[in-house]
Design a protein that fits this description.
Radius of gyration: 34 Å
Helix content: 55-70%
Strand content: under 5%
Distance between the termini: 82 Å
Oligomer: single chain
Shape: flat
Number of strands: 0
Structural class: mainly alpha
Length: 179
């Protein structure tokens, strides 16, 4: 008897839930705008007003919107950085520390072809060493078993001494640039 009562109440609950979902879905269909209303609200990109920035209303004219923006992002109303002063500071920094690798190229003096080639070779060497290190780590993770010693070092280094020298010179220069 208890099982029949529980099944009856469960069936009634499922039927009630389905009826409620049906009513909600019908209500939502009636509230959604028709395609004609949606078409009226959109702006045609071929119209001349679409590309005219003067036709767009300024949201800052609305006092409520302005207050919301001010509360959410107060730094928007603060003055921006003086770009000319920043440019001068970068130029002074580049003049004082010409070997710093973090100086944007627009503030560095013009480089000759040989300097450009040398920098490219150094960056290629650094990339090669990083790739070799990443390959070794991936291989060790893939092939290695927990609790077993790692692979032995190769008899011959896969990285040439010249590449190693360039790599370590670059890393030293990078550390000096951070100081």
């Amino acid at each position: 008897m208890d099982r029949k009562v529980v099944l009856t109440y469960g069936a009634l609950a499922i039927v009630a839930a389905l009826i409620i979902l049906l009513i909600i879905s019908i209500y939502d269909v009636n509230e959604s705008p028709s395609p004609e209303e949606t078409r009226r609200e959109t702006i045609d990109p071929r119209s001349p007003d679409f590309w005219n920035p003067d036709s767009i209303p300024d949201p800052m004219n609305d006092l409520e919107t302005r207050e919301q923006v001010q509360n959410l992002w107060p730094d928007v109303f603060e003055p921006g950085p003086d770009r000319e002063a920043v440019r001068r500071q970068w130029q002074e920094f580049a003049r004082d520390y010409p070997d710093n690798i973090y100086i944007p190229s627009q503030y560095l003096p013009e480089l000759s072809e040989s300097e450009i080639n040398e920098r490219r070779q150094v960056l290629d060497a650094v990339g090669d060493v990083h790739t070799e290190i990443a390959n070794r780590r991936a291989r060790a993770r893939k092939e290695g078993e927990p609790g077993t010693p790692g692979p032995d070092a190769p008899a011959e280094s896969p990285v040439s001494p010249e590449t190693q020298r360039r790599y370590f010179q670059y890393r030293i220069r990078e550390l000096q640039s951070r100081i």
